[in-house]
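Fold it.
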Amino acid sequence: MKRIVWALAIGCALGMSGASQGASAAPPAEPFGAGAKVVREPLSGAVRGVFGLKVVTEGEDLGRRALGFVEARRRALGLGEAALVVKGEEALPNGRGHVVRLGQTALGVPVEGRSLAVRMDREGNVRGVNSDLVPFSIARPERALDAEAAMAVVRERYEVTHVGRPSEVVLVSAPHVARLAWKVPVAVIPLMAHFWVFVDAESGAVLREAPAGHDMPVTRLPRKEGAR
């Protein structure tokens, strides 16, 4: 009987210890103030939103205030070593405040299509955060295509009227999955249908193509006969 009681006691102690460890594994919400609700992505644990905030910031420049708020909570937001820059700000309707958008950079070039938005009220207090940033690391490849080679890949593959000079970007498709790419501007119909073609800077493979704006008259780039 004593053995059974001891076994139960040890089992309960281990269970309580495991529960406490599991609870401590989740990052606390205190950096955002009492009552804040933090929403995380189930698989990566990356922060997707923080709501219920009222954090006072100081200064005249909203971009710097938003960036300072985020930098002070970098660990809680799970940003790692990500370098952040202010991409711009927009006013909310009816004078309800502003949204400041922060972009991410890697290897000294922008990360394409990923941002963190800080919502601020008319007094400049931070009221919420939305983010689709994910943790990743990337190294510049030893051998990389130059801009001319990336343009040649596009000309060989697509029936287009114009191929512009590309810029370097980093594409992040999932947590820990990132590639350095050339963002090549392409025109199918001059002044009407413009696309971006993303060419892997190491392998030369086309990673993605996307319209450069909304309401384009064509939705896909026409490929040359026999092109993969």
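Residues 2-25 form the longest helix (24 residues).
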